[in-house]
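Query protein
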Amino acid sequence: MPEDCRAAFSAEQLLARHWLNQPQIWQLRQSALLEIGPKKIPLEGFLRLDLQRQEARLLAMNEMGLVLFDLQVSAEDQSMQRAIPQLQKVKGMAQGVAQSLRQIFLLPRPQPQDQLENRGNSLRLWRTEEDARLGFVFDCQGDLRETKQQDDSGGWRVVYDQYRSFDGFYLPELIVMNDYRHNIKLSLWLREVKQEP
């Protein structure tokens, strides 16, 4: 988080410039490391992210280029297009991956009515939903740095870092998600970014 600047955006300005609130369709090539407890699984992936329709399609491969699964995700549902037989037997795998994709890229999103807190070099939007507290932290340049949900189960947290410009939009090259309830950590590195016309 930059320390040498002051945050001076309204909630409306933060939402207007937030890259996940734009109508773009992105094609993202990613490297990933999935950590489930002590187990580490390196992955490669191609993600088509349609922000207007709030849809994502992930093609995940192992290090050798073998396609492990092809998953279509919307805000409310998911559909496994194909998967290797070993993954087809894993109960809840599609739902778990889909939920992670939603939390990182699709939902939840900051809202204009969220509470705004100025913390000097950062701004925080937050709200309470049911039994959970949901927060979004933006740096002094207006880029989203963190989405976090706290609840009785431990909640989850997504950190967005190393922003750089792609087609005039600032996207994070590193995204790290921690699901504290399931002891899962997912680290994503953007390797290639393209915008669909």
Summary: The chain has one domain: 11-195. The longest strand covers residues 25-36. Residues 11-195 form a domain with the outer membrane lipoprotein receptor (LolB), chain A fold (CATH 2.50.20.10). Residues 93-106 form the longest helix (14 residues).
